[in-house]
Amino acid sequence: MITAIVLVTCDVSRIPEVAQELAALDGVSEVYSVTGDADLVVMVRVREHEQLADVIADRVSKVVGVKGTTTHIAFRTYSSHDLEAAFSLGLD
Length: 92
Description:
alpha+beta, Alpha-Beta Plaits, 4-stranded antiparallel β-sheet
């Protein structure tokens, strides 16, 4: 699985709508509203590098209200959250 972290700047008046539209796209696993230079952080997870262009350039960038994107591709994932989810039996 290839993970890309996409920093999105958008029209401030459309942040909630843009976030919802982005979250509904195939290949987008999460969308976070954040502080700082970006308005949203979008987590994109795909199986092949070629799919990154389909998701980011062809879909994310074309959502009405998106002004720009900066993409970071992850080399490795280090997350205790992922390990806990993988071994969880779903019992609380």
